[in-house]
């Protein structure tokens, strides 16, 4: 898993399907073993979220997909990832209380057996409802923000939407979440409505944002060009569609 090329920044040719830049991220579908790390990332990306997502259920949900952005482990990250799992239960008074509550409610994800095969830095969850792809959650680790991972995950959501024959993508976003809104606007999402006082922690409104029809020629051309620019800028690769 870890080899010298990671340190030297050379090209990793171990991936038989394609050559990718070392340090670049790629996407794959989440597996059950990833659930506890997704909980850690959710806690970091959405500190106000309650109740926490039951990722083991979500990952196996029908008509849904969770994609993760990952790269190979570098040596110090293996113990760090292990620490992440323990941090779930022990890092603060709040975590101890919420961990106790989760165990009481049987929501504790830290009991998932095993260990992810690569270093997960973010995830996107998509539910397919009739012919619409609903992005239920997208978040990245603080340490990798602003290096194209959110965009990579959004691109993989588009791929999944296409794969499932969806006509458009839709989501809700906090009215104050300028970073996420800017990401969505870059990909042509438009505000189509408001859910008043949608978020229970602070009664904040949610803006409903939706894409134009994604199979229209104009949109497909725009998406293609955004995906190409993203790959050239960052070298990250979404999972190829079979
Ligand atoms: C929103 C989020 C997923 C973006 O991820 P990211 O990896 O940092 O974003 P990227 O580096 O891929 O940036 C892609 C685009 O998003 C927008 N963006 C991201 N962060 C931004 C910021 N802090 N301010 C303004 N625009 C921002 C920009 O349009 C950017 O394009 P650019 O690089 O050409 O300017 C990330 O900030 C996050 O996890 N936030 C917490 C969870 C959350 O709010 N999720 C959305 C719920 S609806």
Kindly describe this structure:
The chain has 242 residues and is an alpha+beta fold. The protein has a single domain (4-234), classed as Gcn5-related N-acetyltransferase (GNAT) (Aminopeptidase, 3-Layer(aba) Sandwich), CATH 3.40.630. It has eight helices and seven strands; from the N terminus they run αβααβααββαβαββα. A seven-stranded mixed β-sheet has the order 1-2-3-4-5-7-6. It is globular and about 45 Å long. The model is unreliable at 1-19 and 103-112 (pLDDT under 50). Coenzyme A is lined by residues 45-46, 138-140, 145-151, 171, 173, 177-180, 182-183, 186.
Name the CATH superfamily assignment: Gcn5-related N-acetyltransferase (GNAT)
Oligomeric state of the chains? single chain
In terms of structural class, how would the helical and strand content be classed?
Answer: alpha+beta
The helix tally amounts to: 8
Share of residues in helices: 25-40%
**N- to C-terminal separation?**
25 Å
Total domain count: 1
Please write the string of helix (H) and strand (E) elements: HEHHEHHEEHEHEEH
The overall pLDDT, averaged over residues, is 83
CATH class: Alpha Beta
Largest sheet: 7 strands, mixed
Shape: globular
Radius of gyration: 18 Å
| Fold-level CATH name | Aminopeptidase
Q: Spell out which ligands are present.
A: coenzyme A
Task: Using brief descriptors, characterize the structure shown.
binds coenzyme A; 8 helices; 7 strands; 242 residues; Aminopeptidase; alpha+beta
In short:
The chain is of the alpha+beta class and 242 residues long. The chain has helices at 4-8, 35-45, 55-59, 77-90, 93-104, 149-163, 178-186, 217-234, and strands spanning 26-29, 64-71, 119-129, 132-140, 168-174, 190-195, 206-210.
């Amino acid at each position: 898993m870890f080899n010298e090329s990671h340190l030297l920044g050379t090209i990793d040719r171990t991936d038989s399907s394609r050559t990718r830049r070392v340090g670049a991220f790629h996407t794959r579908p989440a597996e059950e073993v990833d659930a506890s790390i997704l909980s850690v990332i959710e806690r970091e990306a959405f500190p106000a979220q309650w109740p926490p997502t039951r990722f083991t259920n979500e990952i196996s949900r029908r008509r849904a997909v969770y994609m993760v952005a990952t790269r190979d482990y570098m040596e110090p990250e293996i113990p760090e990832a292990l620490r992440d799992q323990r941090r779930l239960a022990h890092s603060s008074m709040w975590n101890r209380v919420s961990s106790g509550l989760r165990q009481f409610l049987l929501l504790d994800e830290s009991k998932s057996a095993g260990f992810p095969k690569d270093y997960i830095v973010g995830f996107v969850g998509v539910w397919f409802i009739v012919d619409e792809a609903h992005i239920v959650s997208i978040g990245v680790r603080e340490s990798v923000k602003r290096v194209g991972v959110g965009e990579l995950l959004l691109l993989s959501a588009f791929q999944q939407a296409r794969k499932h024959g969806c006509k458009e993508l839709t989501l809700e976003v906090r009215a104050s979440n300028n970073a996420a809104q800017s990401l969505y606007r870059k990909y042509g999402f438009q505000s189509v409505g408001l859910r008043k006082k949608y978020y229970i922690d602070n009664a904040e409104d949610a803006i409903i944002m939706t894409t134009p029809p994604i199979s229209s020629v104009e949109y497909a051309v725009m998406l293609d060009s955004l995906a190409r620019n993203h790959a050239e800028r960052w070298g990250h690769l979404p999972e190829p569609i079979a």
